[in-house]
Amino acid sequence: MHSTSTPSAIPARGMTAVLIAQFISALADNALLFAAIALLKSQSAPGWQLPLLQEFFVVAFIVLAPFVGPLADALPKGRVMLIANGMKFIGAAAMLCGLHPLLAYGMVGLGAAAYSPAKYGILSELVGPQHLVKANSMMEGSTIVAILLGAVLGGWLADHSVTGALAAIAGCYLVAAVANVFIPRLPVANALSRVSLPALVRDFVIATSTLLKNPDARFSLMGTSIFWGAGSTLRFLLVAWVPIALGIADLSTPANLSGGVAIGIALGAFAAARYVQLHSVNRALPAGVMIGLLIVGFAYISNLYWAIAALIVIGACGGFYVVPLNALLQERGHASVGAGHAIAVQNLFENISMLLMVGLYTVLEKQGMPVIHSTVAVGLVVFVAIGLLAAQRLWAKK
Asked: What's phi and psi for 195, nearest 5 deg?
C-alpha cells in the first residue's frame, strides 16, 4: 500500500489531460453506437440485432465487475485509462476491418469496463477533498457534452459514410490515448502482491451484500439501475420509432433526439443540486415515477418538435431523479464498503438492468410487435418498477 499527500489544489495539467481524454473517449463511445447501427443496417441485419449491440457492450461490465476496481488500484490510473482506450481503438478498428459489429462493439465494451473505475478513481488522487466536488462536476459536465455531441456527430457521419465514421471514431480513441500519456504517473493505490480471483470475487460479494442490507444503498442501487436501463432502451427505441412515427429515415434524427434527452438530464441534475439534499432525497421520487408515464405518452407523438420537447422533459425528470440517488449511494458506500466498491457494485446492477430491459425490447422487436406498442410496454415497465420502489420507500419511512 502506498500513501501520498493529498493535493491542495487542482493540478491544471493533470486534470486537463483527464478531461480531454474522457471527453474524446466518451464522444467516440456514443458516436460508435450510431455508426455500428448504420453498419448493421447496411448489411441488411434484422431489426432485433440493433439492440443486441448494447447487450454485447454491457456483458463485459457484468463479467468483469469484481476485477476492474482492483485493477484500477493496482496500476497508475492514467496507465489503466491508456490501456482501456487502446482496447477501444482495437474494437473500432476491428469493426472497420470487417469484424461483425456485435463482436467488435463487445471488444469496445471490454475497454469501457476497465476505463470506468479508473476515470473516477483518479480524481481523488489528483485533487484534495475541498476540490473533489468541483472535479466531479467538471467530469460529469464534460461527459454530458460528449454524449450529446457524440450522438449527433455519430448519426451525421454515419448518414454520409459508415466507413468514414468508423475511421474517425478509431482516430478519436487514439487521440484520447495520447491525452492519457500526459496524465501524471501517480503512485498505485493498492499494489497487489498476488492476484487471487476467488478472493476478489469473495470481496465483491461481501461488498454487494453489505450495500443490499442497507435500506438507503439498496434503494439507490435499484432506483438508478431502473433509470439507466430505461435510458439505454430508449436510445434503440428511437432508432425504430422515428421512421414510423415521424416518417424520417435517417440516423441523424434519432441521434439528435437522444441528444435532447442528454440536455434534459443536465437540466434536471442542475435542479436537483439546488432543491434536493440527502435528507430530502424522497423529493426526487415523483420525477422518477413520471419517467415511465412520459415514455408512454411519447409513444403516440407524431410531430418532431413535440418529440424534442417530450424527450427533454423525460431527461429532466431523469436527471432530477437519478442525481440525488447517486449521491445517496456514494455517501452510504463511503461509510460502509468504500466509494470504489460502491461504484463497482452500482455498475454491476445498472448494467444488469440494461441487459434485461434492452433484452425485453429485443424480444418484442423479434416477435414483430409494432414499435409504438413496444415503447408503451417499456414505459409501463419503468412506471411500475419505479412506482413500486417509491411506494416501498415511503412505506418504510413511516
From this structure: -100, 120
Q: Are 113 and 83 a contacting pair, CB within 8 Å?
A: no
Mention every residue, 6+ apart, whose C-beta is less than 8 A from residue 310.
294, 297, 298, 301
Rounded Cα distance between 280 and 278, Å, is 5
Reading the block at residue 238, the C-alpha cell is: 428511437
Residue 201: all three cell numbers together: 470475487
What amino acid occupies position 81?
Answer: M
Q: How far apart are CA 213 and CA 389, in angstroms?
A: 16
Whole-angstrom distance, CA of residue 309 vs CA of residue 312: 5
CA–chain centroid gap for 35, Å, is: 18
Q: Which of 357, 351, 393 shows the shortest CA–CA distance to 374?
A: 357
Query: Would you say 148 and 265 are in contact if contact means Cβ atoms under 8 Å apart?
Result: no
Sign of the CA dihedral 203, 65, 225, 337? positive
Which grid coordinates belong to 267? 437540466
With a CB cutoff of 8 Å and minimum separation 6, the contacts of 145 are 23
CA distances from 93 to 32, 119, 321, 354 (A): 11, 23, 37, 25
Cα separation, 309 vs 225, in Å, equals 25
Separation of alpha carbons 341 and 251, rounded Å: 38
Long-range contacts of 305-308 (CB under 8 A, 24+ apart): 307/245, 307/246, 307/257, 308/257, 308/260
pLDDT in tens, the chain (398 residues): 444 444 445 556 778 888 999 999 999 999 999 999 999 999 999 888 898 998 899 898 898 888 887 777 777 888 889 999 999 999 999 999 999 999 999 999 999 988 877 877 787 677 766 666 567 667 777 888 888 889 889 999 999 999 999 999 999 999 999 999 988 877 665 655 566 778 888 888 988 999 999 999 999 999 999 999 999 999 899 999 999 999 998 889 998 898 889 889 888 888 887 888 878 889 999 999 999 999 999 999 999 999 999 999 999 999 899 888 887 887 787 778 766 677 778 889 999 999 999 999 999 988 999 999 999 999 999 999 999 999 999 887 66
Q: Are 295 and 385 in contact (CB under 8 A)?
A: no
- What does the alpha-carbon distance between residue 194 and residue 177 come to, in Å, rounded to a whole number? 28
Sole residue written with cell 420537447:
309
